[in-house]
Amino acid sequence: MAQGTVQVTHTGTSRWRRRTGEYASLAAALEAAADGDVLTVAPGTYRENLVVQRAVTLRGPEGSPGSVRIAPVDGVPLTVRASAVVQDLHVEGQDSAAPALLVEEGTPELLDVRIVTRSAAGIEVRGGARPTVRRCTVDNPAGIGIAVLDGGGGVFEECEVVAAGQSGIAVRGGAHPRLERCRVHHASGAGLSVTGENSSLEAVGCEVYEVKGSGVQITARAAAHLTDCDVHRTTSDGVTLDTDAVLTLADCRIHDIPENAVDLRSRSVLTLTRTTVRQFGRNGLSVWDPGTRVDANQCEIFDSTGDYPAVWVSDGATAVLESCRVHDVPDALFVLDRGSRVDVVDSDLSQVRNTAVSVSDGATAQLDDCRIRDAATGAWFRDHGSGGTLSGCTVDGTQTGVIVTKGADPTFERCTVDSPAEAGFYVSAGGRGSFHNCRVTGSGGYGFHVIDGCRATLKKCRTERCARGGYEFADGGNAPGGGPVVEDCTSDESAGVRPPAHETAVQTSNPSTSLLGSIPGQRTTEQEPLVTASEPGPAEPARTSKVVLGELDGLVGLDSVKREVRALTDMIEVGRRRQLAGLKAASARRHLVFTGSPGTGKTTVARLYGEILASLGVLEKGHLVEVSRVDLVGEHIGSTAIRTQEAFDRARGGVLFIDEAYALSPEDSGRDFGREAIDTLVKLMEDHREAVVVIVAGYTAEMERFLTVNPGVASRFSRTITFSDYVPEELLRIVEQQAEEHEYSLAPGAPEALLKYFTAIPKGPAFGNGRTARQTFEAMVERHAGRVAQLDEPSTDDLTLLYPEDLPELP
User: Fold this and answer.
1) Where is the Carbohydrate-binding/sugar hydrolysis domain (predicted)?
2) 203 belongs to a structural domain
């Protein structure tokens, strides 16, 4: 029963029929009212479940907002099924299975309604309803703020979700609302969530912030268009798109995001226009999977707070940037994996701490009329199959202008490199490349530096004011079948293009930039930072050797590796105890050689080995510093020894892990500066034998050659540990571990299907062992998400079980 009365002004077609009545309950007043009547509710609390089925006006008294409370014990407090007007009411609900305000039909107006509830949803719109909702607030810490479902729509103007236990605003089932100048904050799920085919959302002038999840989440073939919106201060990604989602952002601002500012996967499409992305902890744009695409025009991505690339494109995705600016970031563009592509037109990449453009694992980059400034490396094409074209680009103020290595074969046309500290264009380690009408001015090293007999092609190129010379072709020169092909190239040197040199020079980076950092080759939501030769981070509480060995034992497979590490550990521990007892201890050499294919756990074991030695008091810190040839070898005579010494000093008290160590001693290298790195390293290992443990790693055959070519190095290492490829059963176990960690389970038949899959998968050079297993699990999770997203009420089994049909196609 109401604590007040309801005054109803009955309005007829004639003025003389207008009359007023008073009712003791809202239900009675609604029953008596006809279309057009006005129901003015006296202040009070009404414990009624109201249903508005006529086109009436239901409102509280003027000048007393919030004085009328609709607060039943359970059920839906207020249901609207007509084109009514509801104004100045305070609605409270307590039913976790029902909404507080339900709009089912008509085109009602909801004005200045405040909803404070613990319901399934604060406002729910469904079916054919098309309400206009103005200046309403929702406070629902138990459920969704506003839910628009099952074909519902409507316009929400100047509304605010001040708290939500789930998504702030959820759209699904083909619904399509419009938001104007709304605010969503303090939600425990996504700020805006749109999912399902034909579901869409349009938002103008809205703000999403302080949410425990993604700011905007578009999934499962849904679409959204945001204009002049702000997304900031989330705990997860700023914007997430998955499974054929489509989103347009125009004049928006995404900032203060601890994870990815924007993350796209599974054939999603994003269009950004005049949008800024700043202060992000991981990637500004993270783009994954074949068919996934980003088109950015007149956008700005800047001020990264983490150690990740601003734009990350992998697994066959595509990104197009036109008239954009990317600046004040660790790395600007990273494109990796075969089929991945980045097209950049008339854009600026500047203030980049490491690499402006990095292309690897068979990816492609096309840059036209772009400007790269103030970066450690302008562009780096890293490995076989990686390529693309830079046309009409300028590279200014870098450490090294362009690097081409390991079989990469890009094309450079009409590009200018100005004032690099070292080389303008640097080609090594089997890199190729075509350089047409390119120019280098003011280099602190060589203009064009081609070593290792790399067969690059230079046509009509020009160098000016290069400190060490315009052209340097070490090993191969212009000889038939090897070395660069040079046509019509000129230099301001009187001697013109230099003949092949007797000395070779190598990588041209400052060691602090760690240019040859590990390139993640796997699809993972937890990317490692791309800086590997950095200072050790803050010390964590030391673990005992027993605990660390337990973690080692928990790794899948690697039985022979575990035995070797335990044997070493036992030798060191017994030697330590003998010394404490006043006995002589056998000298246990701690330096190791790790051989094996990628993805077999070499870096992980090296990190655990360092931690074990620290727990036994053999090493002071036990941290891992990972480097490769580029971090150790300099271009100038004498610079290699300095770089190697600096890397050794960073590893002091821990482990220096040299990946692909055989690259320090390439076959037929002549007087390669890598020999200087080896000589320096051998001396440091001898002079400071107790300070650092050195582990060299690489492919088995190459490491055997490395040790044969360098007997001085071989004598410094106690033993070689071989990391075998994983067998199908071990790959299955890795998938099972991943599933358990992420709260998934393999359905009946899935383990058998995985074994068949891992048996049939090609085991060529691209096979990634444990990395392949993790990629397979993530691909299964994505396919599972695409399947389960179609279910209206998925069960726990639906949400957790991975079936054989979730397996991806064999590569």
Assistant:
1) 41-172, 313-474
2) yes
Classify residue 252: in a domain, yes or no. Answer: no
Rounded to the nearest 5 percent, the helix, strand and coil shares of the chain are 20, 35, 45
Where is 467: in which H helix or E strand? none
pLDDT (0 to 100) of residue 667: 59
| Residues 255/284, Cβ–Cβ less than 8 Å | no
* 3-state class (DSSP) for residue 476: coil
Task: Please tell me the distance from the alpha carbon of residue 608 to that of residue 541, in angstroms, as a whole number.
Answer: 14
In a domain, 509, yes or no: no
What is the distance between the alpha carbons of residues 753 and 638, in angstroms, rounded to a whole number? 56
- Residue 784 belongs to a domain with what CATH number? 1.10.8.60
Indicate if 7 and 121 belong to the same structural domain.
Answer: yes
d(CA 466, CA 61): 83
Q: Do 738 and 601 reside in the same domain of the chain?
A: no
* DSSP letters spanning 524-588: -SSPPPS--SPPP-PPPPPPPHHHHHHHHHHSSS-HHHHHHHHHHHHHHHHHHHHHHTT------
* Rounded distance between C-alpha atoms, residue 283 and residue 384, angstroms: 25
Residue 765's pLDDT band, with cuts at 50, 70 and 90, is low
**Which CATH number belongs to the domain containing residue 620 in this structure?**
3.40.50.300
Residues 696 and 738 in one domain: no
Q: Which of 263, 261, 262, 375 is nearest to 327 (CA)?
A: 375
Residue 748 φ/ψ region, left for φ over 0, alpha for ψ in the -120 to 50 degree band, beta for the rest: beta
Q: Taking 80 as the threshold, does the pLDDT of residue 459 lie above it?
A: yes
Among 723, 758, 784, where does a domain finish? Answer: 723
Rounded Cα distance between 124 and 138, Å, is: 11
**The pair of three-digit structure tokens given for residue 224, joined into one six-digit string:** 């959204």
Whole-number Å distance between alpha carbons of 802 and 810? 17
> Can you read off the two tokens belonging to residue 638?
């004498």
d(CA 240, CA 261): 8
pLDDT for 790 equals 85
pLDDT(718) > 70? no
Which of residues 188, 210, 232 is at a domain's end? 210
Within 8 A by CB and 6+ apart from 130, the residues are 106, 107, 152, 153, 154
Q: In this structure, are 651 and 766 located in the same domain? A: no
Q: How many domains does the chain have?
A: 3
Same domain, 88 and 172: yes
DSSP-assigned beta bridge partners for residue 22: 7
Whole-angstrom distance, CA of residue 109 vs CA of residue 101: 13
Q: Do the beta carbons of residue 216 and residue 195 sit within 8 Å? A: no
Residue 87 has pLDDT above 90, yes or no: yes
- Scan for tokens 């066959």, then name that residue: 316
Range of the domain at 607: 545-723
pLDDT at residue 681 is higher than 80: yes
Average of per-residue pLDDT across 285-299: 96
Residue 663 per-residue DSSP state: G
In a domain, 668, yes or no: yes
The answer to whether residues 713 and 781 belong to one domain is no
The closest alpha carbon to 526, from 189, 259, 232, belongs to: 259
Looking at residue 743, the DSSP 8-state letter turns out to be T
pLDDT tens string 14-40: 444 456 788 888 999 999 899 999 999
153 and 176 in one domain? yes
Same-domain status, 705 and 733: no
